[in-house]
Every structure is written in structure tokens, then in C-alpha cells.
Amino acid sequence: MIPVKKLTYALSIFCIAIIGCSGGSKLNGTTKGWKKLFNGKDVNDWFVKINHHETGVNFGNTFRVQDGIIQIRYDRYSDFNDQFGHLYYKTPYSHYHLKFEYRFVGKLQKGAPDYTLLNSGVMFHSQDPRTMLKDQDWPISVEMQLLGGLGDGKSRPTGNMCSPGTDVVYQGEVSRDHCISSSSKTYDGDQWVKGELIVLGNKLIKHIINGDTVLQYSKPTVGGGVANGYDPKYKKDGTPLSNGFIALQSEGQPVDFRNIEIKELPGNK
What we know:
single chain, Jelly Rolls, globular, AL/BT2_dom, 10-stranded antiparallel β-sheet, 7-stranded antiparallel β-sheet
């Protein structure tokens, strides 16, 4: 007979293996173990932090809820003025499976950088937004970058990795690139796209788009550049990133998010 503790441990490892092999598709038909991060009504369980504003100030009502959707809008802005923003769920996570849907809508806000056209993202392993300074543009975090096709017939994959203030190991070595492209298809127009993240602390991270695993890497650590205006005490290069906050990004392109759910995996703290 197998001891109960050893059996429980074996089953936990087996569950992680199944998640990794299935790309998350086996879980889409069940709600067991899943928690809604967005209740479809409001963002009272989320923090706002927008560059040039203090934490908690939802400038221009950038993040709003309508018809069960988190909408990111700029109709109350004049010039964008590098007011990059993020909406953070209140609880940090370490080991989990995250699911969400997104779509791009509308036009790029006046003054937003060209590279933010049909561009958004989901940040994770992020620093606490309450530790960010008023004029900090991006949180020290890892990003699952979301891109839309430009309608020109050229490839523009989504589900990429970007690393503001961080480094990751990709294909056996620390990546020298700020962003790593995924193997995903290009998604044009305003169609809803399903994204998933499987995060196992500091060990393994998988990006999934519409059921297909499109990128994986490991060992995120504090390091690298791109993030600006941060408090130096929160950027100790070389520090492993094994947990942190999850956030939706605002970079000047109107975008919608819905059906945001999380399932904690063994090892979550």
C-alpha cells in the first residue's frame, strides 16, 4: 500500500504534468477549482496604477466595466502623455493556471507610441502596485504580450513575452531580448481571443492561445531594463521571481477583457 502522503504528492505532480501536456484544453469544460478574478460587475477587487498618477487614481476612468466586460478606454484623455496604466488583482499568486479572453477595439489614442497599436498585455509576477512611484511607467514584472494583426497579411503573433525590469531563461540561456515572439497565429479585427498562462513559480511558464501552447520559458528574475522611474530598493537584479501580482495593461489602444479566471496549482503560496 502506498502511504497517503506519498500518494497525494504523486497525484499533485501528475496533475501538473497533465496541465502541461494538454495546453489547458482539458480544463476548459469544467469549473472545478476555478475562481473568477473578475465578477462581471465591477473592479472593486483590483488596484489601478497609471503613470504620472498615484496608485488608486483611475485617471479618465481608463478602466471601466460594461456588459460584463472590463473596458480600457481613453475618451477622457487629450494627449496620451505616456500614461501607461495597469489594473492589478488584489492578491499575488505563485503557482496557477490563468484563463482570460481579450479583443482589440477602436483606434489608438492620440500621442500613444506607434508600437502600442493593437497592443496590450497581461503582467504577472509583478511588484505590488503600492510600491510603485508616481512616475513609474511599467511595473517590474513579466508580460504576456497581446498583439492584434494589422490587416496587411503579415505575421504578427500574440502571446509573446516581454520583460520590463526582468530577465527570463529561454532555450537554455538568459534571453538578451526584451520581447520573445511566440509561435501563434495572427488574429486580425475585433475577434475575441482566448489566452491562458500556466505559471509554476520560478520554474516554468507557458503561454497558450486558443488552446495551443505558443511559448514557454523559465527562471524569471529581476534584472534587465525598460522599466523606468522605479524605487531602486524594489529592483535587486538577480532576485528570483516566484510570485507576484497579475495585471491588465493599458498602453493607448482600446481593449476589452472578460472571463478572467484562475486555478491555483500545487505549490501556490
